[in-house]
Amino acid sequence: MTLKEALKLNSEDIEKLKEDLKIKIKNSGVGAYIEQIENKEISSSGNGVPIAIKNNINVKNWELDCSSNILKGYISPFNATVVEKLQSAGLSPFGLTNMDEFAMGSSTESSSYGKTLNPIDNTRIPGGSSGGSAAAVAAGIAIAALGTDTGGSIRQPAAYCGVVGMKPTYGRVSRYGIAAYSSSLDQCGPITQNVEDAAILYDIIAGYDEKDSTSANIPYTKITPNLNSNKKFTIAVIDNFVAQASNEIQTAFNKAVELLKEQGHKIVHTNMIDTNKIISTYYIISSAEASANLARFDGVRYGARKGDGNLKDMYVDTKTEGFGYEVKKRVMVGSFVLSSGYYDAYYIKAQKVRSLIKAEFDKIFENSDLILSPVAPTTAPKFGSYSNALEMYLADIYTIGVNLSGLPAISLPVAKDKEGLPIGLQLIANSYEEQTLFDGALSMEKAVKYIK
């Protein structure tokens, strides 16, 4: 059942739907961890259409731990703005989904709950950090879900699991009540079964919020009433990006381009800044901001508290036992690049390169409406296939530039490889051009329908 169909149900049908989903969740083998707390009953906050919520989004009276031991036992006293908007629109938060600890990762393996399995192939990662949300939707145990995207964390798992994932323009969706990883990059967005459902859910959660200082105070026009798959666009292809993808990704990409041409869209070719510079810039900035944001988790106000000695021992013991390896690593890198003597050499330089990246996107959009790009260089890797952290970071080469530039983007499945694994491509639009983004995505969805 799609979100569009579910919104038409009466209250009795919605309750029956929730019971059916509970059975699916308990019987599913994908390890999506959609329970509020592992091994406890699935809870629902409200009487509306059930929507899965990533485990870093506050739901009042639910435990929120961001899949980290350091926040175990923390009960949220309030709803995030996106949750308030869901409830106002007749939707109901329905369990928290697994994620990489504090959203730091690309595989959902760094979770304190353990890994989430890809429902297409249980030997493969579902992507991250919103892997639990994508897996739940792909497995049919959630109608739709909310995720967060810091460097591709909605779009990459959506591509690996064969569903639709959308990252809004920075500032379009309130971050109030969402645990921060990297404040200048994070955005909340929908993960759904199709493009129209993504537009419906985006319309519900988007808009200005005075409680969020980064929220864009500009007029908002709903997308769904104006969806049009017949519009023709100029779509840019970044050739040096595509060249770094696997042969199967390139083949699917080229076929998608030909189908878009047949639909009447104009394709233009261009090049852009070296992806190595984009990766370096992203991990310097995101780690620096993570270092600042996670300083608050010290055992004093939130979650777990460790250590029986003095205050310093409590800080050390709480963070040593509470944070996982990936989080510790990024916090240490962030502290280093912000430290005296290195701030100018790394952090300031990264911010300058960030401006260059945004300028290059702006230049492309002078002559194009949309950009078509792979989401990841390969299909979903097997668990344990990354030999080092750098290989995992390289999986984000196509997605992180979008976050550095604050642009909207949407990932949708376009093909399957010879093993039946989904291949996703993404469309990128200029800031606040979500209508163009969804119209183009709807056109591509109708055109490709899984390329053979």
CATH arch. level architecture of the largest domain: Alpha-Beta Complex
DSSP summary: helix tally = 15
SSE order, one letter for each helix or strand: HHEHEHEHEEHEHHEHHHHEHHEEH
Biggest β-sheet strands, sense, barrel: 10 strands, mixed
Pfam families: Amidase
Domain Amidase: 47-437
Active site: 54 (charge relay system), 129 (charge relay system), 153 (acyl-ester intermediate)
Protein name: Glutamyl-tRNA(Gln) amidotransferase subunit A
Task: Draw up the topology in text.
Layout: H1 3-6, H2 11-27, E1 49-54, H3 81-88, E2 91-97, H4 131-138, E3 145-149, H5 155-161, E4 164-167, E5 187-192, H6 195-205, E6 234-238, H7 239-242, H8 247-262, E7 266-270, H9 275-293, H10 311-322, H11 325-337, H12 343-365, E8 370-374, H13 389-394, H14 400-405, E9 409-416, E10 422-429, H15 434-448
Parallel strand pairs: 1-2, 1-3, 6-7, 6-8
Antiparallel strand pairs: 3-5, 4-5, 4-9, 8-10, 9-10
Helix pairs in contact: 9-11, 9-12
Summarize the structure.
This protein has 15 helices and ten strands.
Q: What do you see in this structure?
A:
The protein is an alpha/beta fold. The protein has helices at residues 3-6, 11-27, 81-88, 131-138, 155-161, 195-205, 239-242, 247-262, 275-293, 311-322, 325-337, 343-365, 389-394, 400-405, 434-448, and strands at 49-54, 91-97, 145-149, 164-167, 187-192, 234-238, 266-270, 370-374, 409-416, 422-429. It folds into two domains: 1-271 and 355-452, Amidase signature (AS) enzymes (Alpha-Beta Complex); 279-344, no CATH class. It is 37% helix and 13% strand. A ten-stranded mixed β-sheet has the order 2-1-3-5-4-9-10-8-6-7, sandwiched between helices. A hairpin with a 5-residue loop joins strand 9 and strand 10 (422-429). The protein is globular and about 70 Å long. The mean pLDDT is 93.
